[in-house]
Amino acid sequence: MADKKSIVRLTLIVLVVLVLVILLGAAWFFSNLLIHPAYKCNPAHYVYCGDPSEQNIKFEDVTFTTKDGVTLGGWFMPSVAPGKKAIVLVHGHGGGRNEGMRYAKMLTEAGFNLVAFDLRVFSKSGKAFASMGYYEKLDVIAAVDFLVNEKKMESIGVFGASLGASTAVLAMAEDKRIRSGIFNSGYANVADVLAEVGARDYGLPRFPLIPMVMWISGLRAGANMGEINAEDKIAAIAPRPVFIMHCTADNFVPYTHGERLFKASKEPKEMWSPACTKHVQEWNQFRTEAERRAKEFFLRTL
Fold it and tell me: Residues 18, 152: one domain?
C-alpha cells in the first residue's frame, strides 16, 4: 500500500514537473517572438520597401543615439517648402522604418519634415531587442532630440503604427516637446492583446501562459512589463491633441483596443474608425481619406 502511494505521489510530481517544463518552454518560445521579431518588408502591407527616392522624396541617412547608448539609423526627409515643423514616424513590432512611408510624400508636400527610423531591435549597438515600448520610448525621444538639436525644429508631432502607436503614447506622455500625435492601431494593454492573439491564433488559455510570457519577457529584456500599457499613460498627454485610427475589423489588434485608448484619453481627441479588415492598413484601403485626415490633423495641431 505504501509503495502504491509512493508511486502515485511520484507520478503526480513527474506530471507537475512536466507541465511546468512545457509551460516554461512555451512561455520562452512566445517571449522570443516578442523580443526578437522577424522582419521582411512586404509590399502588400508597407507598399514602399525602398528608400524615399522610390517616391522621389529627398532624404539623407542619419544616425542618433538614445540616452541609454543605443545608436539608431533612419532617414531625414525635408519638407518641400522650408519649415520648422516635423513628424517622427514610428514603426510597429516586426516592422521597420518603411512602415510610415505610405504617408511620407503627402506629409512632406504639406510642409512637414520627417524622420523615419528603425527602433532598437535593428541596432548594432546594445539592447538590440524589442521590449514592447519600455525602452523604445527612449528611441522616440532620441528622434525628437535629433530634430530639435540637429535640425532646429520648433514644432514636433509623432505618428506611430501598432507597437509604434503604443510606444508613441508612452513617449508623448513623458516628453512635452511632442505637441500632437496620431496613434494608428495601437494596443491598450500588452497582456490583453497577447491573450487575444494567443487564443485566436493558437487556441491558448490566458492563464497561466500569458503571465509567464510577460514575466519571462520582462526578465530577458530587463523591462518592467507593467509600465508599458498605453491605456494607463494616454490621459497624461492632455491638453495636447491626439488622434486614434483603428480599423473596425482589424485582424491583429482588435478594434476594442482603439476604443479603450480613445476612452482613456482626454480632450482634445478624435478617432477615425474605417471599415477596413487588415492591421494598420487604413491607408491601403482608404488612401484619400487617410491622407486627408492625417494632413488636416497635423496642419491644425503643429
Answer: no
Residue-range definition of the domain harbouring residue 31: 1-35+206-226
The candidate with the shortest Cα–Cα distance to 268, out of 243, 244, 241, is: 241
Do 19 and 132 share a domain, yes or no? no
Same domain, 268 and 172: yes
pLDDT string in tens for the chain (302-residue length): 557 777 767 677 777 667 677 778 888 988 999 999 989 999 999 999 999 999 999 999 999 999 999 999 999 999 999 999 999 999 999 899 999 999 999 999 999 999 999 999 999 877 889 999 999 999 999 999 999 999 999 999 999 999 999 999 999 999 999 999 999 999 999 999 999 988 988 888 898 889 999 999 999 999 999 899 999 999 999 999 999 999 999 999 999 999 999 999 999 999 999 999 999 999 999 999 999 999 999 999 99
Residues 97, 236, single domain; the answer is: yes
Question: What is the C-alpha to C-alpha distance for residues 41 and 53, in angstroms, rounded to an integer?
Answer: 16
| Of 192, 144, 186, the residue nearest 165 (C-alpha) | 186
Taking the model in full, what pTM does it have?
Answer: 0.94
